[in-house]
Amino acid sequence: MSIIESTWRKASYSKAETNCVEAADTTSHGKAIRDTEHRTHFHLVVPTEEWVVLLRGVKSESL
């Protein structure tokens, strides 16, 4: 089980919007991701390598 070790942060592109996701670092060298509209429901943990692939896809608009 991964433990959240940093503050949740929202993408700078989101500004004041609430329909986005937040990310935080974990103790297992991965990222935790959660929905800003349902912060208390659950979060998804992904390895750092998969997080990097996701960010590349988003930035290149291939997703």
UniProtKB/TrEMBL annotation:
Q: Where is the DUF397 domain?
A: 7-59
Name under which the protein is recorded: Uncharacterized protein DUF397
